[in-house]
Design goal:
The protein has nine helices and two strands, in the order αααααααβααβ. By secondary structure, the protein is mainly alpha-helical.
Length: 169
């Protein structure tokens, strides 16, 4: 089972699994301590972090480290659990299309509070700026996610302004 399947999103029958089934077993075991809705929230959160990190086609080591730190700060996952969650979501992000991205955003919006959605936006910009440059495609991805999770444009622009020194658009 993939993270997307676990979130209730189906993959085409012809698509090969994105990750080794043993990885899925490890992440499932690691997240068993979490209630199902919390685990889905964490998975969607990790997916959206990975989506921004991969927006420019590469996830750097510094972005990976920032995502790992953020995921641990915003969940009860251990370092190993956060690593596994990010490994799985990175694989899913590489192969997903725009409709899947929007569906994961919708799931996150449904599972989160307004405060959690606002916090996520700051985390997304923190990942994009991890290498001290927010490329145009990363900025566009963060703004799209902000819209997809229902944040007002004024709020998105306010958070964006905090990262203005890193913007390279």
């Amino acid at each position: 089972m993939s993270i997307l399947s676990w979130l209730g999103l189906k993959r085409g029958k012809s698509e090969a699994p994105a990750v080794d089934p043993a990885q899925i077993d490890r992440i499932a075991a690691a997240m068993q301590a979490l209630e199902p809705e919390v685990a889905r929230y964490v998975a969607a959160f990790a997916y959206l972090l990975s989506r921004v990190a991969y927006a420019d086609g590469v996830i750097s080591r510094v972005e990976t480290n920032r995502m790992n730190s953020i995921l641990r700060d915003f969940s009860d996952l251990t370092l190993g659990q956060a690593d596994l969650a990010l490994q799985l979501t990175r694989h899913e992000t590489f192969s997903a299309d725009a409709s899947v991205h929007r569906q994961v955003s919708a799931i996150f919006a449904r599972l989160s509070t307004e405060k959690q959605r606002e916090d996520l936006l700051g985390c997304l910009y923190a990942v994009a700026a991890a290498d001290e440059v927010v490329h145009g495609v990363e900025d566009e991805t963060v703004m799209a996610i902000g819209e997809e999770i229902g944040l007002p444009n004024e709020f998105v622009q306010k958070v964006r302004e905090a990262y203005a020194r890193f913007l390279k658009v």
